[in-house]
Specification:
There is one protein chain. With 355 residues, this protein is mostly beta strands. The protein is 1% helix and 46% strand.
């Protein structure tokens, strides 16, 4: 079940958050009707599309994961991929309602799937994907044309990215300077309407860097100037990337990078130890997390003019609010953020936040 909660490639990069709200903000907490209510169970919302449909996974009373859709009116649809034994989890949804994600087989190997708006599910595996536990194919995002991106893990534990066309053609690719060791390699995180892919790669020294892959296959590697590590987490229609970087003092900052390569760094208030930009919408509004100097972690929405709005989820426990990253529609065109939090009993709940 850990594959649902933490993508293997990003283990240790995610933050949990407990945040501050104002009376002008709207937070809607929700749970899939079939979700379990014990520790480690519940509802994990990870992304939202322009129509306000949220998707992700819920863990039932038997600790089995299932995909779900929740419309803007609160109607739920549960689904499982063919061959799923332990879990099905959605990772991305496009404006037409098509979903992509992964499922776990009896050996805990991962396989990709796409689900049409009408509910037809097609599974797939990237070339060279491993078949053992923790290996396999893990899609991250799907664009308006139905093109999917993500990464696979081979039998040696090396990650390789892929792009899958709307007709099912799978093309693997790697950043030129990606390493070939265990937990090294290339992981695509997002794709925009033009087919430009953003992601992160780990080099042979385990350093991490951002990359962009154009629709024609040309890859551009980049780092925030002076950074010791850079993660490109999301990309919007204009080609603006959101993400985060680590400086020489081990402080993590959020950033945005324009299509022309101009960077802007930003931080949450109160001298934060970490600020992460995980999602960006068409207008350039970013959703993410920051950790202040006292260790408290907060969610935020960053407006185009740079204003950060923080928020709080109801009844969040020690782990607080989680805003998933690496998903193209984590924040939609109406600035609604989809996410999840852990309550005091370590049960997961989905939420929607409107600044």
């Amino acid at each position: 079940m850990n594959a649902i909660l933490n993508k293997t490639f990003f283990a240790g990069l995610f933050l949990a958050a407990a945040t501050l709200a104002s009376s002008a903000q709207t937070i809607t907490q929700f749970d899939d009707p079939n979700a379990g209510t014990a520790t480690g169970q519940g509802t994990i919302a990870v992304t939202i599309n322009t129509a306000g449909t949220t998707t992700g996974a819920y863990i039932d009373k038997d600790n089995i994961g299932h995909g779900f859709l929740r419309t803007s009116k609160g109607k739920y649809t549960s689904f499982d991929a063919p061959g799923a034994v332990q879990a099905t989890a959605a990772a991305g949804i496009n404006s037409g309602g098509a979903v992509t994600g992964f499922y776990l087989d009896a050996k805990s190997a991962l396989h990709g799937f796409t689900r049409s708006k009408t509910g037809v599910i097609t599974d797939f595996d990237a070339p060279g994907a491993g078949k053992a536990a923790g290996q396999g194919t893990e899609p991250f995002a799907i664009n308006t044309a139905g093109v999917i991106t993500g990464y696979s893990t081979d039998s040696q534990g090396v990650h390789h990215s892929f792009v899958r066309s709307a007709t099912g053609t799978l093309t693997p690719f790697d950043a030129p300077d990606a390493g070939n060791g265990n937990h090294q390699g290339t992981a695509a995180t997002a794709i925009n309407t033009g087919g430009v892919i953003a992601g992160v790669y780990f080099d042979a020294q385990n350093g991490y860097h951002g990359f962009l892959r154009a629709a024609n296959g040309v890859i551009t590697e980049f780092d925030y100037p002076g950074a010791v590590g850079t993660v490109a987490a999301a990309i919007n229609t204009a080609g603006t990337v959101s993400g985060f970087y680590q400086d020489n003092n081990n402080i993590v900052h959020g950033f945005l990078r324009t299509k022309k390569g101009a960077f802007t760094s930003f931080d949450g208030p109160n001298n934060p130890h970490q600020t992460q930009g995980w999602s960006i919408n068409t207008a350039g509004v970013i959703a993410g997390l920051y950790q202040d100097g006292g260790g408290g972690v907060h969610g935020y929405v960053r407006a185009v003019n740079g204003t950060l709005t923080t928020y709080n989820t109801p009844a969040a426990g020690a782990f607080g609010t989680i805003v998933p990253g690496g998903f193209e529609m984590g924040i939609n065109t109406k600035n609604t953020v989809a996410g999840y939090y852990l309550d005091a009993g370590s049960v997961y709940h989905g939420y929607l936040f409107v600044p």
